[in-house]
Automatic annotation (TrEMBL):
Keyword Phosphoprotein in record: no
Matching Gene3D superfamilies: 3.90.1200.10
Main location: cytoplasm
Residue stretches making up the Aminoglycoside phosphotransferase domain: 3-193
EC numbers for this chain: 2.7.1.81
Compartments it resides in: Cytoplasm
Alphabetic keyword roster: Cytoplasm, Kinase, Transferase
Organism listed in the record: Cupriavidus taiwanensis
Span of the signal peptide: none
Name listed for the protein in its UniProt record: Hydroxylysine kinase
Length: 281
């Protein structure tokens, strides 16, 4: 997996050198990583990346311009990765919205009956409406973790993105899942939960247009991201109760988002998310 991440960063640096991503620092011998031995004899592999300046977006006020900047930058990153391939890109990952059906067994861990019913309804929606369509949409290597913790902005200009970090969840998956996952993080902190995601998706679409098939399922996948956040956090908190506070930090927002989306039909939710995508139609 380390080689996968190194190769992706090298590819981005080669095809799109202006991308605000870390650069791989080579050893004096020109290698991208090195094997080292600790004092106790344990051997491990190390790599070095360049430091990116800036502050995490989560520490700044949310604005429409900032969300649109995030959408544009993600689209450019996806364009840079469009032709990248690697043998490790198809690995299994819990945080893959396109494979949410693999988490169905974890519904049994939801002890609250109303919440379990809510989660079951969105799992059914994914299986019935999204899963059959995934074979017909574009797929490529995606970042898969583009959120407020992993995007850095200038301290004096919170709409100027200086860095994208943490490529540890990269994988080969449907492109629309990348956009939906990123958009999901913009539902909170606004009286209208769809306003932020709509701004983000609209800006993304202006740079890298979503196909009609992708537009049809992007809202379902945004809900699916909240669903897997709820399922994985509940499951992990039960397994590691000593770390419950950290594991559950995104859990309340996920349940709130699912409740908000359940109040609308699929078509209503889709139309609200795609307001800026379809405004000129």
């Amino acid at each position: 997996m380390v080689d996968f991440q190194i190769a992706a960063l090298d590819h981005i640096a080669r095809v799109s050198p202006d991308q605000p991503v870390p650069r791989v620092v080579r050893t004096l011998g020109g290698r991208t990583r090195a094997n080292v031995a600790w004092a106790d004899g344990l051997r491990t592999t190390v790599r070095m990346l360049t430091y990116l300046d800036g502050v995490q977006i989560r520490e700044t006020p949310r604005t429409a311009a900032q969300r649109r900047a995030m959408g544009t930058v993600l689209a450019k990153l996806n364009l840079a990765l469009r032709d990248f391939t690697h043998p490790s890109a198809t690995h299994n990952l819990l945080w893959n919205v396109s494979a949410a059906h693999r988490l169905a067994a974890k519904l049994d861990g939801i002890v609250d009956a109303p919440r379990r019913a809510l989660a079951e309804s969105f799992m059914t929606r994914f299986i019935d409406h999204v899963l059959p369509r995934l074979a017909s949409v574009r797929a490529q290597v995606i970042h898969n973790d583009y959120h407020l913790y992993n995007v850095l902005v200038a301290p004096e200009d919170h709409e100027r993105i200086l860095g994208i970090i943490d490529f540890g969840d990269m994988l080969y998956a449907p492109l629309v899942g990348e956009v939906a996952t990123a958009a999901a993080f913009h539902m909170t902190g606004n009286p209208d939960p769809f306003e932020g995601p709509a701004q983000f998706v609209g800006a993304y679409h202006a740079t890298l247009p979503l196909t009609e098939s992708e537009q049809e399922i992007i809202t379902d996948l945004m809900a699916t991201r909240h669903l897997i956040t709820a399922l994985i956090s509940e499951w992990r908190a039960a397994r590691y109760p000593e770390n419950r506070a950290y594991i559950m930090r995104h859990n309340p927002a996920a349940w709130e988002a699912l409740s908000q989306m359940a109040a609308l039909s699929r078509n209503e939710a889709r139309d609200r998310l795609l307001t800026e995508v379809r405004k000129d139609k």
